[in-house]
């Protein structure tokens, strides 16, 4: 039974990776190689929209690694996403060169407007793509490392940790709003022209960005699955379920959390970096605490503690958002709030968790009917055992989720 | 007093929480290889004493030495666990969403840092060690079962098994038979006596039948210090002990 369960979880992850890789090839083809009159043609705005959703899915997956598997409810993951986005945005700004409104070859428009005489020190190097990529990884990773170092070492957990992550993103929001920070203030960074020499507005570039997002998400699924399957992944869940037990076994729970938090922040940063060229702007609004909370909702809807869940959640909720804000724009936030309440009350394990529950029940019924046919078999699975089949190893379990005090 | 042959040495230890003296000038010595039962009414400081030994609580004053020379007040939980002190909690605490086997795998002695865990492949030695422990704690047929599905008593044994997997020199076992059936209690006594053959063990327990079953030296704590020490018969004949337990 256990082997079967592993297999089905493995198959689901493999299917997700394959689907993403297929999308990375098929969607650009249908956009570029098919004539606009064809029924199979995918218009560029859909490519850009779905590409954006894939970045959100990557962000939700990043949150799931810390929330679903380690119980760290971060309400500030949007900050890592935005920082990755700003690093990419700075590269794109430097690519504009003298084509800006003021035609200054070095200074971006907003700096000319704000009377900057020279480029601030932290803008140096962003004219190189490799440097920007390095910063996309390093800045969110470093912030998460330093933040986590202090928070986990001081054993800040639960709602207190959630609050300080929220405070972190809010502080960054206020900082990035300031004009003298040198990040474009309220307006942020926009009017991008080129990425790696290709026009960001061109259909081919958009398709390439879509493919890059899909491949990156597939890679992230693979890496997350590998992490979660490893002994370290088991330890991560052990820390979630009984932190003090891990300490008294000699593990340093703070380091376990710190590693996951840093990896997760880097994933969020990559998501932000892929997002910015596709939407064409990054501004301090991305640091809004409400953005981070929305990520939590996507993850909860899809199913925390599963790898596929947050991806499904992010895609579904955002597709719903696009549709809803077109039809009934005033009511979207109510719908989102209602969705979160409904999921919390009715689907505590999210869509994927519910699906597993159904499958487990169906299997139990089948086993029961088989046992009935075979007569009273003493080896027939007891209901207790069957119920556990609903839960993939490491899936969020209500029983194990409660913190267990050391006494 | 000579510490050289002791596994655990507490002298003049005191700790207060918000003015309440949970441990008051406590002195306790455990020889290498000894098994000791600690009894005492609620609030006597038994669990706090374990917290101090395992590094969860820092004493306000007093000396705490492990293995004759290691000052435990200078180390934290993870370091103390790595030195060879294993602790079982009062409430059985196992990793419920993992299989019994994985619970033991996480407890097995070995490197305790992130990267080795990330790239860990289980060796034949480790599998053998897990098999041995499953035999000792009598959970061999449950190895693939989720720990959440174990009975209360089985969880207690699994936790003891996790302690064994750590290969500690000293085991601190807090109320191992609370909530167990008589048959399970007997089995647990046998298990602990097995373990005590090559480990030093401190058992905190309320159940007097169980303590009698263990047949070891008994220390009775009261209001954070030692009230009486000796054989169970000696301690239970002590008038002060009777007074404390019956509330005069």
TrEMBL record, chain A:
Cited InterPro entries: ABC_transp_permease, ABC_transptr_urea_perm_UrtC, LivM-like
Principal localisation: membrane
Annotated localization: Cell membrane
Stretches for region Disordered: 372-407
Domain of life: Bacteria
Transmembrane parts of this sequence: 12-34, 40-59, 66-88, 129-152, 159-177, 208-228, 256-276, 296-319, 331-351
One Pfam family per UniProt: BPD_transp_2
Bilayer disposition of the protein: Multi-pass membrane protein
Keyword annotations: Cell membrane, Membrane, Transmembrane, Transmembrane helix
Protein name per UniProt: Urea ABC transporter permease subunit UrtC
Taxonomic source organism: Mesorhizobium humile
Gene behind this protein: urtC
TrEMBL record, chain B:
NCBIfam families: urea_trans_UrtD
Recorded GO MF terms: ATP binding
Record-annotated membrane-spanning stretches: none
Gene behind the chain: urtD
CDD domains: ABC_Mj1267_LivG_branched
One Pfam short name: ABC_tran
ABC transporter domain ranges (all copies): 8-248
UniProt protein name: Urea ABC transporter ATP-binding protein UrtD
């Amino acid at each position: 039974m256990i082997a079967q369960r592993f297999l089905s979880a493995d198959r689901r992850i493999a299917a997700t990776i394959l689907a993403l890789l297929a999308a990375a090839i098929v969607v650009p083809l249908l956009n570029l190689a098919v004539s606009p009159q064809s029924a199979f043609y995918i218009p560029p705005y859909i490519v850009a929209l779905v590409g954006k959703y894939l970045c959100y899915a990557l962000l939700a997956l990043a949150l799931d690694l810390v929330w679903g598997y380690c119980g760290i409810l971060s309400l500030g993951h949007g900050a890592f996403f935005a920082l990755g986005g700003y690093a990419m945005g700075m590269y794109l700004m430097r690519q504009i060169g003298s084509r800006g409104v003021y035609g200054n070859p070095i200074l971006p428009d907003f700096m000319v407007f704000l009377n900057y005489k020279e480029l601030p020190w932290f803008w140096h190097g962003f004219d190189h793509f490799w440097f920007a990529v390095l910063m996309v990884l390093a800045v969110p990773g470093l912030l998460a490392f330093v933040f986590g170092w202090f928070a986990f070492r001081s054993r800040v957990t639960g709602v207190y940790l959630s609050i300080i992550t929220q405070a972190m993103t809010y502080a960054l929001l206020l900082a990035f709003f300031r004009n003298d920070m040198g990040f474009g203030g309220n307006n942020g960074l926009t009017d991008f022209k080129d990425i790696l020499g290709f026009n960001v507005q061109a259909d081919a570039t958009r398709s390439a960005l879509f493919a890059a997002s899909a491949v990156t998400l597939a890679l992230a699924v693979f890496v997350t699955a590998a992490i979660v399957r490893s002994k370290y992944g088991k330890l991560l869940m052990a820390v979630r379920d009984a932190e003090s037990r891990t300490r008294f076994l000699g593990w340093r729970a703070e380091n376990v959390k710190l590693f996951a938090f840093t990896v997760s922040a880097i994933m969020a940063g990559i998501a932000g970096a892929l997002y910015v060229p596709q939407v064409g702007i990054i501004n301090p609004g991305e640091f809004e605490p409400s953005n981070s909370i929305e990520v939590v909702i996507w993850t909860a809807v899809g199913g925390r503690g599963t790898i596929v869940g947050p991806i499904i959640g992010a895609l579904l909720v955002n597709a719903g958002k696009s549709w809803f804000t077109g039809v009934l724009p005033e009511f979207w936030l109510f719908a989102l709030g209602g969705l979160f309440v409904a999921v919390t009350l009715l689907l505590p394990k999210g869509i994927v968790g519910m699906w597993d529950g159904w499958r487990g029940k169906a299997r139990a019924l089948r086993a029961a009917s088989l046992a009935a046919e075979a007569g009273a078999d003493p080896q027939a699975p007891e209901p207790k055992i069957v119920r556990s089949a609903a839960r993939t190893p490491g899936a969020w379990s209500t029983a194990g989720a409660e913190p267990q005090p050391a006494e | 007093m000579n510490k050289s042959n002791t596994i655990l040495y507490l002298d003049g230890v005191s700790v207060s929480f918000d003015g309440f003296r949970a441990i008051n000038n406590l002195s306790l010595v455990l020889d290498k290889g000894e098994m000791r039962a600690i009894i005492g009414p609620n609030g006597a400081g038994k669990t706090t004493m374990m917290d101090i030994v395992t590094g969860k609580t820092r004493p306000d004053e007093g000396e705490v030495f492990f293995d004759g020379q290691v000052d435990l007040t200078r180390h934290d939980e993870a370091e103390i666990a790595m030195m060879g002190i294993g602790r079982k909690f009062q409430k059985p605490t196992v990793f419920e969403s993992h299989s019994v086997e994985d619970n033991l795998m996480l407890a097995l002695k070995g490197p305790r840092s992130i990267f080795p865990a990330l790239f860990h492949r289980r060796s034949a030695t480790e599998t053998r060690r897990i098999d041995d422990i499953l035999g000792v704690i009598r959970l061999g047929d449950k190895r693939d079962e989720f720990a959440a599905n174990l009975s209360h008593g089985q969880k207690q044994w699994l936790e003891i098994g996790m302690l064994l997997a750590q290969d500690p020199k000293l085991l601190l076992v807090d109320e191992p038979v609370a909530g167990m059936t008589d048959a399970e209690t007997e089995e647990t006594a046998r298990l602990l006596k097995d373990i005590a053959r090559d480990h030093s063990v401190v058992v905190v327990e309320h159940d007097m039948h169980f303590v009698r079953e263990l047949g070891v030296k008994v220390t009775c704590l009261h209001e954070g210090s030692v009230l009486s020490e000796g054989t169970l018969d000696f301690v239970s004949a002590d008038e002060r002990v009777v007074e404390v337990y019956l509330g005069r």
